[in-house]
UniProtKB/TrEMBL annotation:
Upper taxonomic lineage: Eukaryota, Fungi, Dikarya, Ascomycota, Saccharomycotina
Protein name according to UniProt: Glucosamine 6-phosphate N-acetyltransferase
Domain N-acetyltransferase positions: 33-161
Any one GO biological process: UDP-N-acetylglucosamine biosynthetic process
Gene: GNPNAT1
PANTHER family from the UniProt entry: GLUCOSAMINE 6-PHOSPHATE N-ACETYLTRANSFERASE
E.C. number: 2.3.1.4
InterPro entries, A to Z: Acyl_CoA_acyltransferase (IPR016181), GNAT_dom (IPR000182), GNPNAT1-like (IPR039143)
Family in the record: Belongs to the acetyltransferase family. GNA1 subfamily.
Length: 161
């Protein structure tokens, strides 16, 4: 049973990422990490790639699901986030959702849009049949994710190249 039900506040909407979001997406993601000199052509190639990867047992559904919250007055991207759905062998060929690259434009922080995008992506994961949804985050954001009904589980490990 779902722990959350997404309620979109007046003045905002949520939709799938589009080609026309390119400039806004770069600005919002720059609040998370280095975006680099990505071109519109590369961005389009990535969106096309994401749209080519379907779930094995649900061919109308996508493995890569990136959503944006739009300010309906300015038509700009206020927040962004992704859920990637991984097909596993374990758990009887189960699905795990990975939440990635969450960012709220600095002008829009503190308005519950971060929680909104997490609730929305988590519900997408549940609807797509994931048995769990996981994410990695900085220690400073643990409190935020706890507000979004996520619990600490395990320790993130990495090797960087
Ligand atoms: C998996 C990943 O991608 S991890 C990367 C996360 N992204 C970033 O760090 C990028 C920069 N930061 C941001 O974009 C934003 O600050 C976010 C996404 C962390 C939070 O988004 P916001 O829209 O500002 O948060 P929102 O308003 O939804 O906060 C929801 C609740 O969490 C609390 N909260 C927000 N940030 C934090 C924090 N860092 N620590 C503790 N609590 C927090 C809020 O006070 C609020 O609590 P309340 O419901 O009791 O009032």
């Amino acid at each position: 049973m779902s722990k959350t039900r997404t309620i979109i506040p007046n003045g905002f909407s949520i939709r799938k990422i589009e080609l026309s979001d390119f400039e806004d997406v770069k600005i919002v993601l720059a609040g998370l990490t280095t975006v680099g000199p990505i071109t519109l052509c590369t961005y389009e190639t990535i969106l096309n790639y994401w749209n080519s990867v379907k779930l094995m047992n649900k061919p109308s559904e996508y493995a890569y699901n990136t959503s944006v919250i739009i300010d309906d007055h300015t038509h700009t991207v206020a927040a962004i986030g992704t859920i990637f759905v991984e097909q596993k062998i374990i758990h009887d060929g189960g699905l795990v959702g990975h939440i990635e690259d969450i960012a709220v434009n600095s002008d829009y922080r503190g308005q519950k849009l971060g929680k909104l995008i997490i609730d929305y992506l988590s519900e997408q994961g549940e609807k797509l049949g994931c048995y769990k949804v996981i994410l990695d985050c900085d220690v400073k954001n643990v409190g935020f994710y706890e507000k979004c009904n996520y619990n600490q589980a395990g320790i993130e490990m990495q090797t960087r190249f």
